[in-house]
């Protein structure tokens, strides 16, 4: 589950990356010329609370991998993505576009002015163009083969959609059509989040980048954060963070918000396991069957699956203990086809 971080030169990609990881990758003129990669733990209060109850040896959070794509060296500063970036992004499940919304005399914008909506639209144009080029080649080949099947129709529809100026993520598809397109890894079809990286002067503003309407229209998730502040906070000792945040008027944990939004954008959710050895959040896609969730823990659990004992985290906490939850009839026995819900605590009965 990889998320690619993209954006125009000096928009704050590495700053955001550092904020997420607490890392010290160089920002600004001496920024790395290579991609930065990090695995980020998804903060989860449920794991913390369960660990207080079960006192496990180990607690494990769900994780997402973020890649801060290497700066574009070949396509010129007015482009965000060169060919190597486009290729790297094909392997990402979702994209995060860091849009510069901060004013700064000392940081030159590649287009000379700060204009978040323009930059967001330009990025979409780059993604759409890359998809169009792939589509045109594909159509040419299909026409030679005299293809007239469903896939050909679908590919033509994608082309028309792009040519009308819209990204593929706004094209409505049936599940069958989605499967048909999956192999193409179109970039404008991937889920994408806009991060409005606003400046210190805009703390507390409602829509600091003015991107709300653009995001809604183009099916983009929007998060606003002040990258430089978040990076500073991430590098403080844990116990100092809340106070510093408050003193700046940065009330909410925007980093946590960001990670949760990324998790959600990936179509992911967590189920939980809790016991003396480990309390753990496991990552699955939404609409996963119990037997497949069991397989995420270990293939033996899927192979020898008998049933799952399920109690949702909320019910468990209300009851206070597993024994009480059972007493209240909140622990259910479910079969292979049960669709696991976010926050379900599972105990898999199996036999191999
Ligand atoms: N004032 C202000 N400056 C910021 C903010 N975010 C980033 N900067 C500055 O902008 C410059 C570029 O930040 P980076 O994080 O290196 O941006 P980048 O997108 O990784 O840049 P490249 O990798 O070179 O394309 C640095 O000098 C940062 O200190 C912000 O929120 N406010
Ligand atoms: Mg950078």
Question: What's this entry about, in short?
Answer:
It contains 14 helices and twelve strands. The protein is α/β, with parallel strands linked by helices and 352 residues long.
**Overall number of domains:** 2
Sequence of strands across the biggest β-sheet: 2-4-1-5-6-7
Based on Cα principal axes, name the global outline. Answer: globular
User: How many beta strands in the DSSP annotation?
Assistant: 12
Q: Point out poorly predicted stretches.
A: none
Structural class: alpha/beta
The hetero compounds bound to this protein are:
guanosine-5'-triphosphate, magnesium ion
* Count of individual helical segments: 14
CATH topology of the largest domain: Rossmann fold
Q: How many angstroms separate the termini?
A: 30 Å
Question: What is the CATH top level name of the largest domain?
Answer: Alpha Beta
CATH superfamily descriptor of the largest domain: P-loop containing nucleotide triphosphate hydrolases
Rg measurement, Å: 23 Å
Major β-sheet, in short? 6 strands, mixed
Percent of sequence in beta strands: 15-25%
Give the SSE order as H and E letters.
EHEHEEHEHHHEHEHHHEEHHEHHEE
Any chance you could write out the topology, listing elements then pairs?
Blueprint: E1 2-6, H1 13-21, E2 36-41, H2 45-54, E3 58-60, E4 63-68, H3 83-90, E5 94-101, H4 116-144, H5 150-163, H6 175-182, E6 191-198, H7 212-217, E7 221-225, H8 227-234, H9 238-248, H10 254-265, E8 268-274, E9 278-285, H11 290-297, H12 299-303, E10 305-312, H13 313-319, H14 322-327, E11 332-334, E12 344-350
Parallel strand pairs: 1-4, 1-5, 3-9, 5-6, 6-7
Antiparallel strand pairs: 2-4, 8-9, 10-11, 10-12
Bound molecules: guanosine-5'-triphosphate and magnesium ion (MG).
The site of magnesium ion has 4 residues, from helix 1.
